[in-house]
Amino acid sequence: MMETSMINEKKKVLFVNNNLVAGGVQRSLVNLIHQIKDEYEITLFVFNCSGDYAKLIPPEVKVIEASPFLKLLGMSQAQTKKMGIIFYVARAACALYTKIFSNHFPLSFLVSTQKKLSGFDVAISFLHNENEKILYGGCNEFVLKRVKAKQRITFIHCDILNNGTNTARNRSIYKYFDKIAAVSEGCRRNFIKAVPELEEKTYCVYNCHNFSEYYDKSIINPIEYPLDCLNIVTVARLSPEKGIIRGISIIKRLIKENYRIRWHIIGGGPQRSEIEKEILNNNLSEHIILYGNQENPYRYIKNADVFLLPSIHEAAPMVFEEAKFLGVPIITTNTISAREMIREGKEGIVSGNNEEELYNSLRRVVDQPAILQKYKEYLRIQNFSNETAIKQFSNLI
């Protein structure tokens, strides 16, 4: 009888993340939890348990929030005002120290304020380390220093060779994990190039998706775009690596050549004011529309002619699968996972990672609309599932 109960006992899995605000990593985490919640006993430890996705955590998942000081790693400076002057000043001091020196000491100090957790079969840091001059992250340090578990795993959601995280400090931290999970084969390859000695314990685990949610939200007041032009949609954080500025330059060229185009951009971020100025300075306000952050981006994707992601570097954008599932072809640049995630010539175009080739790709589909129609017909008959991702995760732990 005892042997049977031991066999049926669920593995105890701890996930650690900084917060639950709207973002690709957080979205991936929530989707994964929903897919595996019946198979494992899940505990979620978040530094700051707030954000749009907090309400999406299943009730059967135990959620633990951090100590007040560790909570600072999941908050912006503005958010700490609600906690009082002590925490506002503490975070500001940590941010200043990080900018002058590095985030090594602030991360170690803030992590040390949390009491240790134990009793887990697997502890997973779901957020990779960031640039050492940014007060961000800490999940890897927390899992290694404050959690007792039989197995420790960390996830890589970035292109380590191109996003400023390939440092001696970060590389040394990864060596202490039992396994490393990269969210695409491209991410895995670049991680192994950075830390070749960890190849044998580095695996690929794809992001999970909530396809039923994508569909349900896409039919809630879907945007009806004008029919007399090519409607391009982008859902992305407005930050330099997303390539929005060069996208504006491309649209300007096409408009000057009398092509009828509207570019609909959903998302916010640190580059918004610069992007707004660029649009105004080039008299493109009628052709490029910024919608800001939207709780339901799928209603904007659904009726678009093409999805554009002109990124300079990317990891494994979840929005690729979202757009494909909604039947919208993709044009993107050749970042590390693009050819892995998009069947070129069937689901979209993977352009060279430069302005000229991206311009040529967009001009091609404007001149030949039958290309996009062919891609749409192909996407319409595809089956989408999380089967591979779930199998990869199961094998991982």
From TrEMBL:
Q: Which GO terms label this protein's molecular function in UniProt?
A: glycosyltransferase activity
Which keywords does the record carry? Transferase
Chain ranges of the Glycosyl transferase family domain: 232-378
Q: Which domain of life is it from?
A: Bacteria
Q: Does the keyword Transferase apply?
A: yes
State what protein this is by name. Answer: Glycosyltransferase
